[in-house]
Design a protein that fits this description.
The chain contains five helices and three strands, in the order αβαββααα. Helix content is 54%, strand content 12%.
Amino acid sequence: MPLFNVSPEKEAALVRQMEALGIREADLVERFVKGSGKGGQKINKTSSCVYILHEPTGIEVKCQRARSQALNRFLARRELCDRIEAKVKGEKSAREQAREKIRRQKRRRSRRQKARMLDEKRKQGEKKVRRRPVSSDE
């Protein structure tokens, strides 16, 4: 009997990932809370939001992506595995990497960088002027 509302392959993959990371069901504290946000009565009346605490690491995950409690349980465990794996490997998660990329893109250039960029643009403009056909007026 499946625990979560997903295919047996996905469930088996999650179980393997949890075993590889040393996550036991006994270490998890699972609570179901009422959701919040958009959705009206349906989301506010049912306890489909899943909260999981992994006691050894202290990592908390709250998942409310789907209307189904079983699917939210699966998604919360998968998120927990991803976070623990990132912590173990010492890598930054994909979400943090995306956040840093946006921060770098929005950061203002220094005066030196700006001057260098404008100088390159000026040189490129001069090249384009020299590429123009010679006029016969001269």
